[in-house]
Amino acid sequence: MLVTIHSAKCVGIEAVPIEIETDIQLGIGIHLVGLADAAVKESLLRTVTALQARGFHVPGKKIIINLAPADMHKQGSGYDIPIALGIIAASGQRAMPELEKYLIMGELGLDAGVRPVSGALPMVELAQKLGLKGCILPEESALEAVDYTESLVFGVRTLDDVLRILSGDEDVSDLLIWNTETYARAVREQPERPLSYMDFADIIGQDGAKRGVEIACSGGHNVLLIGAPGSGKSSIAKAMAGILPPMTREESAVTSKVYSVAGRSGSGVGLMRYRPFRAPHISASKAAMLGGGSGENILPGEVSLATNGVLFADEFCEAPKSTLEALRGPMEDRKVTISRLKAKIEYPASFMLVAASNPCPCGYYGEGDRCTCTVGQRLGYLSKLSGPLMDRIDIQLFIEKSL
Fold it and tell me: Which residues on adjacent β-strands are paired with residue 345?
């Protein structure tokens, strides 16, 4: 008996359909085909153990599991539940009339518990495009999609919950993510504002610098803050995300999908409501800033995680020159394209760059007689920033210490 289950894979911030086909014939062994990586191949042992923990048996025949399309690499542990359901349905151990009406993803534990997977938001959007009834996802992953009320989104904790939904003979409204206790608790514990935000009103003095960053925030301009240590550059930068205009629904959806694909829950519940603030260390590599990975498993970098928010680069002139120059493309195109031998992925990168730097190597130029640098050292320090990079920074502010 051939059984087909709808699943998905994330390519960039979009999901593409994957079909899990299971067939049982005369013979011996379990055969997994379809360009699966090590994590997917290892799922067979997890799946068999989980099935036995719930009283199901694995038929002593030849079980063929095909992940279609066969020319696309599949990675991750999210195919555990579809593979388990395919074995149960193909062997006739449980009737599941609703099986082909849902997109299903989730990792199985050895006790048949369900663990979260990344990319929930793109998968829910794909289910809507395909005209499916809804999605069945791990409870923690389904929390990301509570704002997608156009289709049914179920949050499950065990394989038994999945079987309840697919049986079609009982009320499973308690498994809708909006009705779960996990959702209610997450809403109660959700902070009013991100902990990384600093209140702009707490910054005393620096009226000129504050006026400059207000103009930058109103127009989405990139900013370079130059000042001595202790002048308040980092504090002003941390406060900028809090005075940016609220995100639109479209901006919130794009940013949330980037975090979902990266396996990071931006807000915990639903779409992100606050603009992200990213502050990578100056030692971050080009791959960490732009995104990267091996094969087709390419994850977004800091420039994408800061989409529709603020990317703060402290000690800007101390960062590797190759990393600084790599920012030129994303700042101009508002996107980043990562090319590998077997993959080419595009991520959004519409961020507001806020860079902070000392005026000279010792850091105290302009602070009376404290500077010990020569004229050549001062000129050489800021000249590390190339002309094309500085052309993309609209506002440059020199900040003096407040008395």
Answer: 338
